[in-house]
């Protein structure tokens, strides 16, 4: 199974942990943006290059995992995944985002979006059942 993980830059260690668990089970990470964390040099060319690699990683994936807390680019990645009709797994440590209140988004409720609750190990375990 090919996967891409979208999340906030500050969450890069959890992304690495989840990636490691999935790769240890034989899954393929299509693009690991955490290799650039923390970003040492931010300029237009670097951002463009990373953005193109992230886009290609999403395109090549079978599933896109959204790991909260999300960053400003995460919802863009989420939108790309939806537009490309990817299976999406929105993962949060509790049910905060999955209540019908100000913490949710209408897009969290699309049929191709699956909601997972738990820590990294729980999330990996659920994903590996696919």
Descriptive report:
This protein is α/β, with parallel strands linked by helices and 130 residues long. It is built from four helices and five strands. It has helices at 12-24, 44-60, 74-83, 120-127, and strands spanning 2-6, 28-29, 63-67, 87-92, 113-117. A five-stranded parallel sheet has the order 2-1-3-4-5, with helices on both faces. Strand 1, helix 1 (12-24) and strand 2 (28-29) form a beta-alpha-beta unit. The radius of gyration is 14 Å and the shape is globular. The mean pLDDT is 92.
Strand percent estimate: 15-25%
Structural class: alpha/beta
- Radius of gyration based on Cα positions: 14 Å
Low-confidence stretches: none
Task: Give the topology.
Layout (H helix, E strand, L loop, with lengths): L1 E5 L5 H13 L3 E2 L14 H17 L2 E5 L6 H10 L3 E6 L20 E5 L2 H8 L3
Parallel strand pairs: 1-2, 1-3, 3-4, 4-5
Helix pairs in contact: 1-4
